[in-house]
Design a protein that fits this description.
36% helix, alpha/beta, binds 2-keto-D-gluconic acid, 12 helices, five-stranded parallel sheet, 12 strands, single chain, 15% strand, Rossmann fold, seven-stranded parallel sheet
Length: 315
């Protein structure tokens, strides 16, 4: 049987590579030394692209594949896929929503706790002997009972807010419209006003051109010198230059970040700061969730090639 040819943009765990290679003829873009000539050679064979949330598929990649039918994204965010290029040619796009929601929310809340309670520094305090030499660890800030803002009450934002309720926090959220299922929480349409009434501001928005830099200087200064920003969405939702300035000059208290412009490289200014918690874009990074994401990527590919409805289409 002729297996459909697919372009794999980035690596997957071994447990996904094996069944993917069994079902498809897989061309590994990430292994190619000369990506342009690789694409012009294998592009005409390709019927589907399997990619990851942060890698997406560019217009150039899509255009190099004239027979492309589907882009299957391992990730809920599909902002890195050129949707206009897909729509022009009727190419379908799928993502992996729901299966990762709880893990992403967990990491956001864990980041808040870790940074607010100074857990990374406290660990060093034990390991480097400071505890014995210097005594008690410097006091940090409480989490429970304080004010939290959730910018974007989609699936992930909702699960973050639910978790924060367990900490008896005063919760508000911003979204395009008030959500009928969020009557326990205050709706504050304006992100600046939300930041103003928050000690902790969670960014849980699906990224798009419309949300680019929605967290800019104004939001950051409204959050203020005691406030903490937690980003588990995409770097593009935040004006990173404004964020770095605010963190450096003390206009913003602290930031817990799982995503960065140009990741995995990041602006070296972040590394000089001690009021940040830096994470390597791993909010969905549990064995359980990543297995479910990989399965959904393959299930969408299989459904497409069997002529069945896609499980989780976005285009
Ligand atoms: C990544 C993500 O896909 O869900 C998303 O949008 O960005 C992540 O889950 C994951 O890091 C694998 O690359």
């Amino acid at each position: 049987m002729n297996k459909p040819h697919i372009l794999q943009v980035g690596p997957y765990p071994e447990w996904d590579e094996v069944p993917l290679n069994a079902a498809f003829t897989v061309h590994r873009y990430f292994d190619a030394a000369d990506k342009e000539s690789f694409l012009s050679r294998i592009g005409p064979e390709i019927r589907a692209i399997a990619t990851r949330g942060e890698l997406g598929a560019s217009r150039a990649m899509i255009e190099a594949c004239p027979g492309l039918e589907l882009v299957s994204v391992y990730g809920v965010g599909f902002d890195a896929v050129d949707l206009a290029a897909c729509r022009e040619r009727g190419i379908r796009v799928t993502n992996t929503p729901d299966v990762l929601t709880n893990d992403v929310a967990d990491l956001g809340v864990a980041m808040m706790l870790c940074l607010s309670r100074g857990m990374i520094g406290a660990e060093s305090w034990v390991r480097d002997g400071s505890w014995a030499k210097k005594g008690l660890y410097p006091l940090k800030r409480r989490v429970w009972g304080r004010r939290a803002g959730v910018l974007g009450l989609g699936r992930i934002g909702y699960e973050v807010a639910k978790r924060l309720q367990g900490f008896d926090m005063d919760i508000a959220y911003s979204d395009v419209v008030a959500k009928p299922y969020a009557s326990d929480w205050a709706f504050v349409a304006d992100p600046v006003a939300l930041a103003e009434r928050s000690d902790f501001l969670f960014v849980t928005l699906a990224a798009s051109a419309a949300t680019r830099h929605i967290v800019g200087r104004e939001v950051l200064s409204a959050l203020g010198s005691e406030g903490m920003l937690v980003n588990i969405s995409r770097a593009s939702n935040i004006d990173e230059e404004a964020l770095l300035d605010a963190l450096e000059n003390g206009n913003l208290g602290s930031a817990a970040l799982d995503v960065f412009e140009g990741e995995p490289a990041l602006n070296p200014r972040f590394l000089a700061l001690d009021n940040v918690l830096l994470q390597p874009h791993h909010a969905s990074g549990t064995v359980e969730t990543r297995k479910a994401m990989g399965q959904l990527v393959r299930d969408n590919l299989a459904a497409h090639f069997a002529g069945k409805p896609l499980l989780t289409p976005v285009v």
